[in-house]
Amino acid sequence: MPYGKYKGKYLIDLPEYYVVWYHNKGFPKGKLGDMLKQVYELKLNGLEDLIRNIQKQYSK
User: Residue 60 pLDDT more than 90?
Assistant: First the structure.
């Protein structure tokens, strides 16, 4: 996340309530908004582990 309380966190690591808040408020325009929409869908469908597994593979 590039700004705010969660600056420096991966989008997938944002709390679910925060991503839902953005969904209700409206995602920002541009690339960040597109990525937050994708994170929302991943969290909504319980698929965060897909991203976390990729993170683990590349952090070795």
Answer: no
Q: How far apart are alpha carbons 20 and 11 in whole angstroms?
A: 13
Q: How far apart are CA 60 and CA 40, in angstroms?
A: 27
CB 58 within 8 A of CB 13: no
CB 10 within 8 A of CB 58: no
List the structure tokens of 11. 């989008």
Instruction: Please give the structure tokens belonging to residue 14.
Output: 């944002």
SS3 readout for 1-60:
CCCCCCCCCCHHHCCHHHHHHHHHHCCCCCHHHHHHHHHHHHHHCCCHHHHHHHHHHHCC
The predicted model scores a pTM of 0.88
Q: Tokens representing 39?
A: 């994170």
